[in-house]
Amino acid sequence: MQGYKNIFLVGIKGVCMANISLVLKKMGRQVSGSDVADEFITDELLKENNIPFFIGFEKNKLPENTDLVIYSSSHSGDHNPQVLEAKKRGIDTMSQAQVLKELTQSFHTSIAVCGSHGKTTTASLLSYALIQLNVQPSYIVGTSKFNSIWGGDYAGHTTFVIEADEY
């Protein structure tokens, strides 16, 4: 994720995408995005952390200064009009899975929680336990909030907990 300053997330209200946006913002990046008008559980996270987003996927809503567009499999994935516009302008694009790979590789220790059931609970409990032990982990879990803390945080490049899902 080095070298990118202005990052735009297509489908920013998705739980993973919202938490990625929060982590990237805490890493010092300018973050914004787009999504549908429907209310999501992540609306509070985005609002309280001053992460702006546009309603709709019209290509003219892609900010001029964007140097990376991140997309998920929602909203037509890499065929989304904003992703296609980014490619047309020569702006780098990455899937959500690619971004998670990049983030995971940038930490000294990464812990991925996977499985059929209980990933969010386990990843949340692990992150919370590490916080209580003063390990100061960075993390992305599959919820907007757990134990009154956001589902994503950046606390340096030492330890990273991730809910390994959908990739």
From TrEMBL:
A GO molecular-function annotation: acid-amino acid ligase activity
Mur ligase N-terminal catalytic domain ranges (all copies): 9-107
Parts of the chain that traverse the membrane: none
Superkingdom as given in the UniProt entry: Bacteria
Keyword Secreted appears in the UniProt entry: no
UniProt-listed Pfam families: Mur_ligase
UniProt keyword Ligase, yes or no: yes
Keywords: Ligase
InterPro entries: Mur-like_cat_sf, Mur_ligase_N, MurCDEF_pg_biosynth
Official protein name in the record: UDP-N-acetylmuramate--L-alanine ligase
Species: Candidatus Roizmanbacteria bacterium CG09_land_8_20_14_0_10_41_9
